[in-house]
Design a protein that fits this description.
By secondary structure, the protein is α+β, with helices and mostly antiparallel strands. The protein has two domains: about 100 residues, no CATH class; about 140 residues, Beta Barrel (OB fold (Dihydrolipoamide Acetyltransferase, E2P)). It is about 35% helix and about 30% strand. It contains six helices and eleven strands. The strands form two sheets. The protein has a six-stranded mixed sheet. The radius of gyration is 20 Å and the shape is globular. The N and C termini lie far apart (about 50 Å).
Length: about 260
């Protein structure tokens, strides 16, 4: 495999290829919903054949293999809520290649494609200070470093302010207003989330691994009276003898 920077012309071609692929993946994410499911899934199926070939011809062998696996699992996605996270995962892989300029098995391993099984869901494990919670991965758009936080013209309970993200002003929820511990450090991240077209962000001090949970592993928050009581947390689970809350994104947006 030749290096991405073998010559300027090759570098330019590969950069153009990755940028075009990223835009195409974004387009499918924007178009996918219940009303377009059958039509867009068929278009994605056709496009995947091209993605496999083009990735290989541009010397991104492991990306090509990733799309081959994606093609084989395409029929296992039950609907837009399952397929959209897979497309976003592919885009994160492509964006990583834009930064690293070359493909490798180690990079590919960071973007392993999984399909949620019935009764089982995938979550992103996060921390705010010493409190832990998970967010459904299907609602996670991206995790980004700290950005400038702009206050609202009029302070509103539940919101810290807004941050710039891809040309939009994204509201940042204040978990502290709902009883979470105050973030005492300047070392934090924003988790950009999406719920039915509404984008918002959460300020977290750590994002850890992805966690796969079965419904039977979840316990009602009422069974643990010492945990905080907020409308958007109804369940928790136990990990290494620690209680981890499960954020209900729908209720959080409505809070």
């Amino acid at each position: 495999m030749s290096d991405f920077f073998g010559d300027d012309f090759t570098a330019e071609l590969k950069g153009y290829y990755l940028d075009s692929l990223s835009q195409e993946l974004d387009k499918f994410v924007d178009l996918l919903d219940e009303s377009t499911w059958n039509r867009i899934r068929a278009e994605i199926r056709d496009a995947t054949k091209t993605w496999i070939v083009d990735a290989k011809s541009n010397e991104f062998e492991f990306l090509s293999n990733w799309f081959q696996t994606f093609s084989e699992k395409l029929d296992q996605f039950a609907g837009p809520a399952d397929l959209i996270p897979a497309l976003r995962l592919a885009n994160k892989y492509v964006e990583q290649l834009m930064d690293t300029k070359k493909d490798s098995p180690e990079i590919a391993a960071q973007f392993t494609l999984t399909v949620e099984q019935q009764g089982e869901s995938l979550y992103l494990h996060c921390k705010v200070s010493d409190q832990e919670f998970v967010i459904p991965i299907k609602n996670v758009v991206e995790v980004i470093p700290a950005l400038p936080l702009f206050p609202l013209p009029q302070k509103k309970s539940g919101l810290l302010g807004v941050i710039p993200f891809r040309g939009d002003a994204i509201p940042v929820f204040s978990l502290q207003d709902y009883g979470f511990n105050k973030n005492e450090t300047n070392d934090f991240f924003y988790v950009i989330c999406d719920y039915e077209g509404t984008r918002f962000s959460l300020q977290v001090t750590e994002t850890e691994e992805l966690i796969s949970l079965r419904n039977k592993e979840l316990q009602s928050i009422e069974a643990n009276p010492v945990m905080i009581s907020v409308p958007f947390i109804r369940n928790f689970f136990v990990k290494d003898q620690r209680s981890v809350m499960v954020l209900d994104i729908e209720r959080l947006v409505a809070a």
